[in-house]
Specification:
The chain is an alpha+beta fold. The chain contains 18 helices and 16 strands. Helix 1 runs antiparallel to helix 15 and helix 11 packs across helix 18. InterPro entries: Bact_solute-bd_prot1, SBP.
């Protein structure tokens, strides 16, 4: 667990990430944190605390024709990422034989402590993924990548919502100059479904809206099938709640809260509507009556035991539930609030890195970042259990109940990417919100809080946390 986040799977190791959204995850499709993206909350301090002037780290010149120039790059890697990032290094070297990427590996526990000191030293690695992006920018430790973005066209090739966590403006993540870039790969958080039960209730296609999803749940309830498997002893109804917030608020508005954008607020009619939707499903009996007493492991057992139709979770669970349930379930992205609307969903980006300001090989390092936007890099990500998209694959995304599980994960992720719908967990905004949300979800399930009051409480908690930071 990092930063007070309570949605972490107890047996997982969170990989180092950046900004308010921890982004690198160990064993992506297995026992990852249930809120996989929740790593350090170093960027959860108030915007004012990081808004001081930073050194200009823009390169004086940019050269993209460096593929045939011999160079050796150092990539600072956490132990949990070593195999994955070595695969990226090998694939890059296969395409550019004259450039070698060597990994410098640190233990997962020490990565976030060691990296800032390294970036400030004369032996700084060329490439890394700092957990405190704001601090790195303020201290002049990271290269401003705007010139490389313009030269390589990353903003045109990569979904804007995948690049947003690497942008900084006036001490706020989400917009402005680019300090972390690459491709787009990560887990899919969506709607897992029991194939046998889906057939029993006549679900023949992916629901195209929240209303259509709700209609399927109503059929399940009438058939004596529990519509939703969940655990709320540990607050993991939060996955579903975050998906609903993204649907009704929009991915950008939810991300603005997580990134501490000035004037961002949860206290909106859209957030209340999302909360009312969840309350309606609770009152309709779509969850098990003892959901507040169930933990994550118990929910896995219920889903694989055929005790419910839907399971709102992340693709990191597949290796765990495959042990007893392989081939018996599928997944699709959370349907938009309205038919024809935009997909949204939480994820983390495992194909994005920063270039150290002290790097002596910035042009070669930028070529590596550009390589991360290619199908070759996407294949490495997929082979390591992540979903990944390129500018071509995201255009062809159509969620379906057919195809393999891997294909469904890829398609679901690509559908969200095509709509620039990547966002993060509300819990990531501040540790206080994480704690308060778990409490409020428990109260909502037990009928002891109303949606408008719950939203106001969470907003007050958020605002107070920013004031005191």
């Amino acid at each position: 667990m990092r930063g007070g986040i309570m949605l972490e799977h107890p047996t997982s190791t969170v990989r180092p990430g950046t900004g308010a959204v921890g982004r690198r995850l160990r064993a992506p499709l297995a026992g990852i944190a249930a809120a996989c993206a929740l790593a350090t909350l170093a960027a959860c301090s108030g915007p004012g605390s990081e808004s001081g002037s930073s050194a200009d780290t823009s390169p004086t010149a940019v050269n993209t024709a460096v593929g045939n120039t011999p160079a050796t790059l150092t990539l600072f890697s956490a132990a949990g990422l070593q195999s994955y990032e070595q695969g990226l290094a090998d694939a890059f070297h296969a395409k550019y034989p004259k450039i070698t990427v060597k990994l410098r590996v640190e233990s997962d526990n020490n990565y976030n402590t060691v990296l800032p000191r390294l970036l400030a030293s004369d032996s700084a690695p060329d490439i890394a993924a700092p957990s405190d992006l704001l601090g790195g920018v303020k201290d002049g430790l990271l290269t401003n990548l705007d010139a490389y973005d313009k030269a390589y066209g990353w903003s045109e090739k990569v979904p804007a919502s995948a690049l947003a966590p690497g942008r900084v403006s006036n001490g706020v993540i989400g917009s402005g100059s680019l300090y972390q870039a690459g491709g787009s790969a990560g887990p899919l958080v969506g709607v897992f479904y029991n194939k046998e039960l889906a057939a029993k209730v006549g679900m023949k296609k992916v629901p195209a809206s929240v209303a259509e999803l709700e209609a399927v749940m109503a059929k399940a309830k009438k058939s004596g099938i529990t519509p939703i498997v969940a655990s709320n002893q540990d607050g993991l109804i939060g996955h579903l709640y975050n998906l609903l917030l993204g649907d009704y608020m929009g991915a950008q508005a939810l991300s603005d809260i997580v990134y501490h954008k000035p004037s961002a607020t949860l206290d909106t009619p859209e957030a209340v509507k999302a909360t009312k939707t969840l309350q309606r499903w609770i009152k309709a009996g779509y969850f098990a009556s003892d959901v507040n007493a169930l933990n994550q492991e118990a929910s896995y057992g219920q889903f694989t035991g055929g005790k419910g139709l839907f399971f709102f979770q992340g693709s990191w669970i597949t290796q765990t539930i495959d042990k007893n349930f392989k081939g018996k379930y599928g997944v699709f992205p959370m349907p938009p609030a309205e038919k024809g609307g935009k997909y949204a969903g939480m994820t983390s980006n495992t194909l994005a890195f920063s270039i150290a300001a002290r790097s002596k090989n910035k042009d070669a390092a930028a070529l590596f970042l550009d390589f991360l936007t290619t199908p070759e890099a996407a294949k490495v990500a997929v082979d390591n259990g992540y979903a990944a998209v390129t500018s071509d694959t995201e255009k062809a995304a159509t969620p379906s109940l057919s195809g393999t599980l891997t294909e469904q994960i890829q398609t679901g992720y690509a559908a969200i990417a095509a709509d620039n719908g990547f966002d993060s967990w509300l819990q990531n905004s501040t540790p206080a919100v994480n704690t308060k949300l778990n409490q409020q979800l428990q109260l909502l399930v037990s009928g002891k809080v109303e949606p408008a009051a719950m939203v106001k409480t969470l907003q007050t908690t958020y605002a107070d946390a920013l004031k005191s930071s």
